[in-house]
Amino acid sequence: MMHEPTPVNAAGDAPRIGLALGSGAARGWAHIGVIRALERASVTPDVICGCSIGAFVGAAAATGDLDKLADWVERLSWQGVVSFLDVSLRGGLIKGDKIIQYFQREIGNVDFSDLDMPFACVATELQTGREIWLKEGSVARAVRASIAIPGLFTPAVESGRVLVDGGLVNPVPVSLCRAMGADVVLAVDLGSDIVGRARRRGHAATKDVDAEEAEQSWAQRLLMRFGRNEERSPDPEDEIPSMIDVLSTSINIMQVRIARSRLAGEPADVQISPRVGQVGPMDYHRAAEAIAEGEAAVARMMPAIRYALGHEVSETHG
Q1: 3-state DSSP call for residue 130?
Q2: Which residue among 161, 199, 228, 233 is least packed, with the fewest CB closer than 10 Å?
Q3: Backbone angles phi, psi at 139, to 5 degrees
Q4: Residue 164: which of 176, 151, 146 has the closest Cα?
């Protein structure tokens, strides 16, 4: 059987592979499964770019700490999620300090220039609406800016600019991957199946909330009440969402529409779409199923990935 020749870039070398990791709140743990599955297929990205949760996971991959992150999120309980939520009454419900302190402690407070792999992430300048590409200075501070979901996380201030979630302007940063020198871009879109689809809660959401709250601080109990609806209707379809769910889901819908428009004008060579619409925006404790679906999404798209790379994936990037 004859194969097409392996594609080359303008310099005659093997193509540089870019991985664009999209926004999507808790659904973003699927990125871990995507990267794992690509590694097993000997597809190693040369460039990683991320937006929001994609920036968080992408930074861990670029620093070589993806397994450490995966181990943590797979053991994360709802109580553990709540323990990271530090209440703020200015600019957003959550300050985000605890999350970034974890990142700096476990992943490392490294500079972009110290990374072995080119990495960049996207944020939005709040005053102007401009898309900001972050690829210099502290990786942790850049990630903090990229994940600052408006209304939920307080904005980040960098060099006099007020920055919020990059998903407002570029939810799946294919264009950034191209600008970073990628010849072939694999894009991970987490929003392909959430618009128009009823959210299904996992078994973890049916636990006794009173028992979970017993040892929480007042601030954490407040966040649990904002983040979970305790007055459940007998019919799950009639359930009224929590405040956080309404806010984050509304932003997700907006980002899905923006992503579809951006991807139509700046298409990836291969679009990987994990089916994680059933994972709620704050369901960070449901990492196992999101990771598994990320792996499954790569398996579904592997023929297209191999075609985009000239059918010689293992030999070219093995």
Answers
A1: coil
A2: 233
A3: -65, -45
A4: 146
The rounded distance, in Å, linking the Cα atoms of 249 and 203 is: 20
CB 26 within 8 A of CB 286: yes
Distance CA 156, CA 165 (A): 9
Strand partners, 122: 51, 133
- Structure confidence by residue, pLDDT tens digits, 249-294: 787 788 888 999 999 999 999 999 999 988 888 889 999 999 999 9
Distances (CA, A) of 25 to 54, 100, 158, 233, 245: 9, 16, 22, 25, 11
Give the Cβ contact number of residue 139 at 10 Å. 30
Single-letter amino acid code for the residue at 60: A
Instruction: Tell me which DSSP letter residue 18 carries.
Output: E
> How far is Cα 95 from Cα 69, in angstroms, rounded to an integer?
21
Helix 218-227 to helix 243-265 angle (10° resolution) is 60
Both tokens of 75, joined, read 């053991």
Catalytic residue positions, numbered: 52, 165
Of the chain, the end-to-end C-alpha distance in Å amounts to 22
Query: What are the CA-CA distances from residue 267 to residues 9, 189, 258 (Å)?
Result: 18, 12, 13
Contact yes or no for 226/59 (Cβ under 8 A): no
pLDDT digits (tens, 9 = 90+) for 70-101: 999 999 988 888 777 766 666 666 777 788 78
Coil, strand or helix at 252? helix
Q: 270-272 and 184-188 as β-strands: parallel, antiparallel, unpaired? A: parallel
Helical H segments across 122-242, by residue range: 139-146, 174-179, 209-213, 218-227
